[in-house]
Write a structure and sequence with these properties.
Elements lengths: L2 E3 L1 H10 L4 H12 L7 H13 L4 E5 L10 E3 L8 H7 L2 E4 L17 H8 L3 E3 L4 H4 L2 H11 L4 H6 L3 H6 L17 E4 L10 E6 L2 E5 H4 L1 H4 L5
Parallel strand pairs: 1-2, 2-3, 3-4, 4-5
Antiparallel strand pairs: 6-7, 7-8
Helix pairs in contact: 1-3, 2-3
Length: 224
Amino acid sequence: MNTVKAQDLYNLREVTGFISGTDLHKLFYDVCDEPSPSGHMEIHVEDLAAFHNGRVALEILCRSLIDNLSDIASYVLPAYKVADVMAEAGVSFGGWVDWWGFKEESYDGCPYGFKIMYDAGVNIVINSDSPDEGRYLNLNAAKVLKYNDIPEEEVLKMITINPAKSLEMQDRVGSIEEGKDGDIAVFNKHPLDSTTKCIMTIIEGKIYFDYEKHSVSVKGVTHE
C-alpha cells in the first residue's frame, strides 16, 4: 500500500478553495474509479480518493502537535507528549533520535522520549530523511540504546518491521520469513555495534553488494 502525504490535502484546498465535507466525499467517489487524468492536481485528487477508500495510508508531516494525526506522523519530534493518544489511534511515529533544537518544530524533541512512546505501545520508526542517512540507520538505531532502556531486538524493529508496518507492507518486507521479498543486509558484527559494517546487501534474493568483491579496500585501491 502506498502513502499519500498530507501536503496533497493542502494542495486540494489551495486549488479549490473551501470545500464542504459532502462535496469532498462526492469528489472522492467521482474520481476513485476513473482513469487518472493528465495534470499534477488531478493525480493528487486520485491519491486522495485512494486514501478515502482505504487503498493507501496517510502520512502527515507534523510541524507541531496541533497538526492532525493520521496513519504515520513524521517529523513530530515531541510526539512523546501524546504517546498514549498515538498508540490508541494506531498512529506510527516517524522521526529521529537525537535531532532537536535546530528550529521551532524541534525545540521539544527529546531522545529519551523513545522510551515513553515504546512503553505506550507506539509503533516507532526511525526516519532516514535522505539517501545519506539511510546508509547508517543501524547506527541511528543504536543511539536509542544510549538514551533509553529498550531491548535491542525492539530497537532493531524500528528500522525493519516497524517501518514495514507503517507502510502496511509487513507481508512483504521488514523481517526474514519464507515468502517475503528477500531484502537483507548482512553485517560483520551486531548491527547496533558502532564498529560494524555491512558486508553484503541482498535485494529480492539477488546480491547487489558483496564486500569481498566490491570494496575498494579489499581490492587495494588507493586515492593516490
